[in-house]
């Protein structure tokens, strides 16, 4: 009885009106294995893996080699079932639908033993008409088919020609033919992630009963009319009208803060009907636009849309409306072949700085604020049940508890996105091999000012274009655009990840004679279908067919360019692990770099949770097993040895930890050099190349605890790279580099107005905590939104200071105005650190004190220390700075905890490493 009450209480909210009822089927279901040998309770939303773990039938799937041990789970065909009663008279309703917000993936759905539909796409919303099948007491079953077996069968059935790649590289230990199933592509493994092809009901499910008519979806887009300089709002609402007579009524749109109220009469005929409204925003009120982080506020306005229909029927929707324009500018550049490629927001060119987003977990239901084990989350859900049965909680208390659980889910995402903003990023690319993220992700991006480059979910593969596949994709794309297009954060749609490149650079060794077939498939899928739908559904943001692409040039070449990596057009992805990353000449001076990066290992405290003592060496089976990029572990050390000596402690565990640290040093320094090169290239054309207007490194986050290109570890801990990003993405940045024995400093500004600054350049010897030479320029103007040369000196002249040599000295520099520091203090190494002379072992101590919610770490060093790394193990939180070059005796750093901790706990976990302590 109580549980039934919960169902009703929880879901008679949005969508409910006088003539509609909604009943949630979330919560506890039964799950059965193919042959019935296993039967267990499981949560919805959720998946089989999570249910097995919650019932303690399996260990943490991320522990050690469990991804291989539990491969059988994805090869079985599971069944989800549930008995439920309808606590009202269902027969009275004209229409009853069963709505799934997301099913993962291939199922046949049966209600009371009647097949009501099939599913094959995890990115779609499914609605099944169950009017004639639903009863007072019901039994629902979802017969899942293994995604792995389904993909294999679809590939087999595609007899006319092969659609490569067949399987992922062996090092990924994954499953094959993922391109034949509309499911998270990386769930069959990736070069940074495990294979966990989940099965389950991964999003909400409910029954909707209604009479007369029902509001199926509601979406809107603000549009700016340049001619008359006015904002308008296009609102589309789609109804299903069951009444045979037309339904008359009125719609009222109101945005009080903009003193805008719009009323119109409507008439809805029987069937599926879309009401299109065009609302003019009151032009006497100044509309405050939405700006990306670092460029202004993220002002939004509350809007309500009320449909008042015949017979007292009404539907109301509230939403936040944000106003902004976005343009992708591809135009000729003086003294340069090719075209520009940059984004203008509200008419202003903006340098996109940020990273690439991948799914935060293989099991979407497992994401909690600090990625605590599932049972912690379960515990809070359990509380709701206890509360109901034993304490007879009131409805508001229940709602509060439910909100707390929901909140914790949302907080985890918020933490990752907040970390992006805290590192001065303004853009994330939602990469095409993962998922279209949940609503909260985009809501947070709207609120935080993170621009989203949204890929459609196709990656690193060719795809079939048979009728079923295309129909499924069309439904997916239409649904996702309608769900997401009102978010100002999304600034572009992109057809896929790297598929133009895969095709044209012949990654899969297709016969030249077969190429036209694959090109035809490519154009059919991304141009004739996806692009066509985008243009119909959303006229407010650009569409590019692929990333990387040459943009207009690719279009001119029939949608596929011979070389999609052409630096004179569009965006590029760039990876080079072998060349020296300290040498900027190895990087492409491109228009936009949407992927580039280097791998590193996560910290020991993160790895420790999923490994055991025998795993803790760089050469262990475990270290090899977690590395999914062929030769990745070797490449990291190779890159590191170009500039650093490798750790060589007699203690194996110490050496392992020091090696993890060194891979992070290498990664942070490499991505710093590369990003600074892109940022300083924004305003110049050299030999026809340049005007770089975007740098999105690969990749922001991790899906599990393993080596990868990420700057945030699984669990959210900042790697050294993330602390570096906070500096190299700073709005005002001095960038130092050398060319032909001359040292240059460029000043990069992302600001909207010019500012007066001075530049201070200091030379330090490794052997002393006092700078030996220091010079400060006169005040000069740093132009808004530009990069310009600030300082130039031949290296021998720079070294003409206290007998400096390249090996014995290091340069630091910063921008300031009076006593106000305006930029991070940047540095330039004049030689590899393995050759540095005078570096002493630094003894670094810290005195920790609590200051309100934060903790101060007062540091003192005995010597100059490069890459000072403060670590508090598994205590969640971040420092104000880390991985820095300590050239002064003392320095205070703050620690911001993400959950309550104490001075004592921090003191016990604290460990400091710097470059000299690993030798
Ligand atoms: C790019 C991405 C991903 C991959 C990364 C690192 O190709 O699009 O597919 O994980 O490089 O290899």
TrEMBL record:
User: Which pathway is it part of?
Assistant: Glycan metabolism; N-glycan degradation
Q: Could you tell me one molecular function GO term of this UniProt entry?
A: beta-mannosidase activity
- What enzyme class is recorded for this protein? hydrolase
Entry-linked SUPFAM superfamilies: (Trans)glycosidases, beta-Galactosidase/glucuronidase domain, Galactose-binding domain-like
| Sequence ranges assigned to domain Beta-mannosidase-like galactose-binding in this UniProt record | 29-203
Q: Which Pfam families match?
A: Glyco_hydro_2_N2, Ig_mannosidase, Mannosidase_ig
List residues of the Beta-mannosidase Ig-fold domain: 839-917
Mannosidase Ig/CBM-like domain residues are 744-834
GO biological process entries: glycoprotein catabolic process
Localisation per UniProt entry:
Lysosome
Print the keywords alphabetically.
Disulfide bond, Glycoprotein, Glycosidase, Hydrolase, Lysosome, Signal
| Signal sequence interval, chain numbering | 1-18
Reactions it catalyzes: Hydrolysis of terminal, non-reducing beta-D-mannose residues in beta-D-mannosides
Per the UniProt entry, the Enzyme Commission number(s) are 3.2.1.25
One cellular component term (GO) for this entry is: lysosome
Highest taxon, organism lineage:
Eukaryota
What task does this protein carry out? Exoglycosidase that cleaves the single beta-linked mannose residue from the non-reducing end of all N-linked glycoprotein oligosaccharides.
- How the protein assembles, per its UniProt entry? Monomer.
What family is this protein classified in? Belongs to the glycosyl hydrolase 2 family.
Q: What is this protein called?
A: Beta-mannosidase
Chain's gene name:
MANBA
